[in-house]
Specification:
The complex is a heterodimer. Chain A is built from no helices and 11 strands. Chain A is mostly beta strands. In chain A, the strands form 2 sheets. In chain A, strands 2, 4, 5, 6, 9, 10 and 11 form a 7-stranded mixed sheet that branches. In chain A, strands 1-3-8-7 form a 4-stranded antiparallel sheet, with no helix packed on it. In chain B, strands 2, 4, 5, 9, 10 and 11 form a 6-stranded mixed sheet that branches. In chain B, strands 1-3-8-7-6 form a 5-stranded antiparallel sheet, with no helix packed on it. Chain B is globular, with a radius of gyration of 14 Å. Classes of the chains: A mainly beta, B mainly beta. At the A-B interface, strand 5, strand 9 and strand 10 of A face strand 4, strand 5 and strand 10 of B.
Amino acid sequence: DTGVSQNPRHKITKRGQNVTFRCDPISEHNRLYWYRQTLGQGPEFLTYFQNEAQLEKSRLLSDRFSAERPKGSFSTLEIQRTEQGDSAMYLCATRGPQRGKLSTDTQYFGPGTRLTVL
Amino acid sequence: QKEVEQDPGPLSVPEGAIVSLNCTYSNSAFQYFMWYRQYSRKGPELLMYTYSSGNKEDGRFTAQVDKSSKYISLFIRDSQPSDSATYLCAMSAPGSARQLTFGSGTQLTVLP
């Protein structure tokens, strides 16, 4: 357990519905990332927050996707009008100052939210 | 062509074998190199981290980075059935975000 938690772990929805995922980072980690992973592929970067500021967005993040990180703590990723192509594992990762064995240079992933769009 | 290419596998070895996993990359700006292990339907777990070129050893795991060849490797000695998982290489360039670019993963099975 890295200390990064994600909820829900699994979400099944019908096409056209909106869904929202939550990520709670390791405490003191001010950098937070969202990635998407489809079957048989590595994770792909979606967006990056430093504290509450969203500083980077991938071209994969269409206008149906929005992410927030109010107050620089937990983050939410919302997908509007879901499509079957949105079915994937959505992963949150965090990075922060050196603490114990946790390096400042590396990202630590949560367990992911698996989205299935019917 | 993808920025990071990884041997797709699947790879099946007997218990106790030495496993070699490899990735090549095209972006010369990459400076940070990582290996993650991912069990089915779980999040990636950090195994090894290396900055720039060189070798790093941690128990049964050795990571090697050759920036001149744009080639990284992970060696697993005395492989165990519990090592059966998908192994992902990942790398990033200096900067504020340092978002990771991953390979597609190699599925490893260690047979008892």
